[in-house]
C-alpha cells in the first residue's frame, strides 16, 4: 500500500476515535437545561469527525486518483524521505508544542506573535517589515474577536506570580 494510503488509514482511525469521544462521551455531564439545546458542545467535534472519516476514506479508497492512463509517480516517495525538508517540519512541530506551552506563562498576545513570526521566518519569509505588522495585526485581531466578540477570556499579557 502506498504511503498516502497508510497515512489516510491512520487518519481515519484517529477520526473514528475522536468521533467516538464526540458522539458518546462529551455530552454525558451536560446539565439538564443544556440537554434541550439544538447545538451542544459536541456538535462541532461530531461534524469534524464525520468530515475527517469521509475525506480519509476518499484517499484510502483511491477516489481522488486520476485516470490510470495519466498516472504518474507519486509526489511523496517514502524511500527518498531524507531528501525532503524533514528537519524544517520537525522544528515547526516543536514550535507548535512550545507555543502551546507558552500560552499561559507568556499570555496570548506575546506567544502568538512570537509563534507567527518564528514560524513564518522558519518557512522562508524574509521581509520582516511586512511580516511583523501582519503578525501583530493577526494576533490582535484574533484576540479581539475571541475576547470581545465571543466573550471568551484569554489572558493577553504574561502572568506575574
Automatic annotation (TrEMBL):
Membrane keyword on record: yes
Keywords, ordered alphabetically: Membrane, Transmembrane, Transmembrane helix
Pfam family membership, one: TctB
Record keyword Transmembrane present: yes
Domain DUF1468: 6-154
InterPro entries assigned to the protein according to its UniProt record, in alphabetical order: DUF1468
Transmembrane regions listed in the UniProt entry: 45-63, 84-102, 108-124, 131-154
Protein name: TTT family tricarboxylic acid uptake system small permease component
Organism expressing this protein natively: Saliniramus fredricksonii
Organism lineage string: Bacteria, Pseudomonadati, Pseudomonadota, Alphaproteobacteria, Hyphomicrobiales
Amino acid at each position: 500500500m502506498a504511503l498516502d494510503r497508510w497515512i489516510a488509514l491512520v487518519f481515519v482511525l484517529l477520526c473514528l476515535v475522536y468521533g467516538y469521544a464526540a458522539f458518546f462521551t462529551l455530552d454525558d455531564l451536560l446539565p439538564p437545561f443544556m440537554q434541550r439545546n439544538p447545538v451542544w458542545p459536541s456538535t462541532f467535534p461530531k461534524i469534524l469527525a464525520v468530515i475527517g472519516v469521509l475525506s480519509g476514506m476518499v484517499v484510502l479508497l483511491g477516489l481522488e486518483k486520476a485516470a490510470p492512463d495519466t498516472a504518474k509517480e507519486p509526489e511523496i516517495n517514502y524511500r527518498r524521505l531524507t531528501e525532503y525538508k524533514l528537519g524544517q517540519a520537525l522544528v515547526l512541530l516543536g514550535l507548535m508544542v512550545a507555543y502551546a506551552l507558552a500560552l499561559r506563562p507568556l499570555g496570548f498576545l506575546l506567544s502568538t506573535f512570537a509563534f507567527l513570526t518564528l514560524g513564518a521566518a522558519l518557512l522562508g519569509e524574509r521581509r520582516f517589515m511586512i511580516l511583523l505588522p501582519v503578525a501583530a495585526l493577526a494576533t490582535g485581531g484574533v484576540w479581539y474577536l475571541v475576547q470581545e466578540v465571543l466573550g471568551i477570556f484569554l489572558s493577553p499579557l504574561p502572568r506575574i506570580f
